[in-house]
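dumping these here so i dont lose them again. two proteins, back to back, each one seq then structure tokens. dont judge the mess
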Amino acid sequence: MDIGSFWATNMILITCLSTSLETVEVKGFTGKQHEIPFLAYLIHYGKLIKTLSIDIDSHDIANTQIYFEKAQILKTIKPASKKIHIHIS
């Protein structure tokens, strides 16, 4: 299974995205092929999300800037929630 295309094309709406999910915390983000499509799915369908906090993997100092740039891509996705704040650190 191609997990990236799964989240990009999956039309199943997980119930918590429209009824209860308000906060998402991601720790150790590296921008791997499964992370970005999954978070894009949450942003696109998460009607109640107020906060998406992304902590970049700080153990791999040589690639920290690359991880940060990949996380920035998520700010270009049209969110379902008008109240969402995406924090990258």
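---- next one ----
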Amino acid sequence: MTTRYAALLRGINVGGHKKVPMAQLRTLLTGLGHSDVTTYLQSGNAAFTSASGAGEDALAEELTAAIEEHFGFRVDCLVRSGPYLRAVAEDCPFPAAGLEPKQLHVTYFSGPVAPDRFAGLDLPAFLPEEIRLGDRALYLYAPEGLGRSRLAEALSRPALTKGVTATTRNWNTVVKLVEMTRD
């Protein structure tokens, strides 16, 4: 049985740091035994088919180790199945169809995140920006975009991400990952 997955690499190709060319990422994933490998943009999004039977966490660990061995630096990776990515998109608590893609973002987490992690944030002070938690995901509505979001800045504090890998994608990329991982 084969499963279609997306690999989400955190913090690559930003400001000239941690350069991971997408052609090399495709070659690396193919070398790990995966097929139908495609990439999206230069920001570390790849889709692949795997028959290994390994779970998402094992695939992410394998890719993290392979990138470190090949490129000489560590890159945190998340791997998510196509059905999971579709569920995240379908469960969006904000009216995605009525928003500009730059206004809506999803932060994917390596594991479950409890609401009490964000209890110290004065969320009403950030309005009209809002967040909602989902299954290993956080939805962020930022009307002025991520670059101008005070709430996104607050969410990136180390205390809020301690113990989990977190990587954020805008809504265009969320939708594209769903398309790329359709069976």
